[in-house]
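As a warm-up, study this chain.
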Amino acid sequence: MSQVDFSQQSDSPLFKDLANKDIEYLSSVFTCSQVAEGKTVFIENMPGEALYLIGQGTVQISQMLAEVDEQELTTLGVGDIFGEMSVIDGESRLVTARITADATLYSLNRKNFTKLTSENPPLGQQLTLNIARIFSAKIRRAKKDYRTMLTASLPHRN
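Now compare it with the structure written out below.
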């Protein structure tokens, strides 16, 4: 299996507190793909099987509100990850991810994630902690956005 070059992603929160040897190990279990602008990485409700790290480009995350009404939630860029829930719980996707600028994506599938956590428990533990931190930050940001939306809809008091 060829090694992925993570030299441009060293600041990603996915690699927080990882030694160079650990990042090198991860480079052997991730795969790299080039994805053109306009392509869909995954669609809401489809089975989830991998997380993605953005090496280059941008990815729009959206969710269907009604049968024909799709709402953009955020746009992610270099160093961001998405799809992380699927390597943890294996459940269906909650959102849709589309490429908005030609992208390099590094993916880690659930099988390789499970394998690395059993073969290298300290690395697996740190990687899982980093994924949990990223996910926690996303939940906190969503809660803040939700609060802002709710307070904006309240009548203003004089």
